Fold these 2 entries.
Entry 1:
Amino acid sequence: MSLAQLWQLQQLELAREKETRQLNKQFLKELSKEKEKLLARQEELKQARIQLEKLVKQHKRQGRDLEELEAKKRDLSEELYSGRVANPKELSHLEEQVQAVEAKLQTMLEEYLELEEKVASMENNIQVQHNNLAKDMNNYNMKAREAKGNWQAAKDRIEILNGQIEEVAAQIDPSLLAQYRRLQQRLGISVLAKVQAGVCGGCGIKLPSLFCQQIKQGETIKCENCGRLLVIS
Ligand SMILES: [Zn+2]
């Protein structure tokens, strides 16, 4: 009778071991690594946005400088063609000034357009990265929720198994239970083996036919090969 309960105890302990393995699976650690990577991407994106903001400000500044220079050119041209200046030396000086401003305008305009292109491409890049990150974050959150749910469920099952193990163990003859625990220290959880068709279920060796007789009579018999306690099913 006690052996049957011992067998039940072993089955419960095996089930608990399986759940515990599930609980300690590597994937929770992998999940936290994935989160770290996502946070790093988030930080990168933040830095890119700061950079973009600086460029946008610089672009606006260039625009204002361009307008100022355009105004200056207008003023100089007006002066040049107003007829107010008659002195040839002054006129040629004015002409030179207009040309200098025009040349500067050209350079500035090129820089302005170049920066405009850079800003547009950066904006586009950030948008793409933002969308990708949002998608990956979403996936991660779903996975994390599921993993957490699985983890909790396994924990709950272990809790239930612990209660059942305690209950069954309390019904077993203490000296038999102590023997079982001692054997477990050496052999792991599975210290009971069923005899099936005269063969030890633990190691597969053929058992003397006398053993079955003795077990049926209530004797505690160990497999001579693997040392497990034999149980008749
Ligand atoms: Zn055996």
Entry 2:
Amino acid sequence: MSVLQVFTFPHPVLTQEAKPVARFDSELKQLADNMLETMYAEGGIGLAANQVGQLKRLIVVDLRNEDQEELAKPRPERHREPRIFVNPSLLDASGETVTEEACLSVVDFTAEVKRAQRIVVGYQTLAGEAREETLEDLAAVCLQHEMDHLAGKLFIDHLPPLKRQIVKRRLAKIAKLAKSA
Ligand SMILES: [Zn+2]
């Protein structure tokens, strides 16, 4: 397993739409393993393939990666709950919840985002088996955030237009400075 590079705003790969996965082979399994390793290394609770430069409808999630008590344990004792969603699609959404969101691809910025509190998601496993699952609260929010990535959208795209413009301009400036430093 290896840790992959996470692309950050304003990299164009983050604004592109991911394509459905058609081949459920060892290459896909390896990409999912590497994405999990990358997510653990970066301390995120979810990662979409776009973020590592792969336009594939593939998401990895581990909600426990946010649990501070869990993170304080030595690595071998940590209890991980990795989840993998291939070709996820939103089948139903209801309720409303507001969460302070962050993103491994949006450096040093968080914002409150309103999303559905409960979703039903259809997806495939790494073996290509079709599944359906109901998710609530943080799990639902995380999946919606990651599915946005697959559509080429970031959580900052949910901000009101003026604020979004200001934030994007500021983030682009910071990225440019970081590059030239
Ligand atoms: Zn993200």
